[in-house]
Amino acid sequence: MKINDNKKVLFVIGMEQSPESIIEKMSGLHPDNILVLQSYGPAIAPFSDLMRDIIIAVYRENVEEICVAVPTANRKNARETLKKIYNNKELQEKIQTLDYLFKNSMPEHPKGGIREWLEGNEASANNKQNSADVIRNHPLMPSNVKVTELTIENENLSKMMQRDGSLASNY
């Protein structure tokens, strides 16, 4: 995958990934043409704050390509964080109240309860594809914006792979 030096590229990455590492690896791109959005977890819902930020970036910055980067590393830290939340005695009553509200008073909430909301698509084995498809198929996304899924093989971004398995380090 070759990218024109003048093309603006938006990388959607997790908090465990370093924006500086991406900029270093993308030697063919001018740093001024690289935009990075970071979030906890790769879940992108069609009408989430992250999706809104992506759409605004595309129009405001004239983004021509979006790369959704997801590490293949174990999500142990995310599970441990969620476990702390679920096991916090002080939060149990609040979690029950929110579950009730989500299930009975907020039918527009797309997830079932607080647990599902906190976990996002974490349970999905194909998060990067789901996130890329959400972006690609969003009704407000211009059809000329290319959306690419990148798999980060390890935490230090030593190897980035495209969905088709080819190396993407030749930007």
Question: If you had to describe this structure to a student in words, what would you say it looks like?
Answer:
This protein has 171 residues and is an alpha/beta fold. It is 37% helix and 17% strand. It has helices spanning 19-25, 49-61, 76-87, 89-104, 114-119, 127-136, and strands spanning 9-14, 34-39, 65-71, 146-152, 160-162. Strands 2-1-3-4-5 form a five-stranded mixed sheet, covered by helices on one side. The termini are close together.
At a glance:
With 171 residues, the chain is α/β, with parallel strands linked by helices. It has helices at 19-25, 49-61, 76-87, 89-104, 114-119, 127-136, and strands at 9-14, 34-39, 65-71, 146-152, 160-162.
Strands, helices and their partners?
Blueprint: E1 9-14, H1 19-25, E2 34-39, H2 49-61, E3 65-71, H3 76-87, H4 89-104, H5 114-119, H6 127-136, E4 146-152, E5 160-162
Parallel strand pairs: 1-2, 1-3, 3-4
Antiparallel strand pairs: 4-5
The whole-angstrom Rg is 18 Å
Shape: elongated
Euclidean distance between termini CA atoms:
7 Å
Q: What is the count of helical runs?
A: 6
Widest sheet: strand ordering? 2-1-3-4-5
Strand content: 15-25%
- Helix/strand-derived category reads alpha/beta
Main beta sheet, described?
Answer: 5 strands, mixed
Brief descriptors of the model:
single chain, 171 residues, alpha/beta, five-stranded mixed β-sheet, 6 helices, 5 strands, 37% helix, disordered C terminus
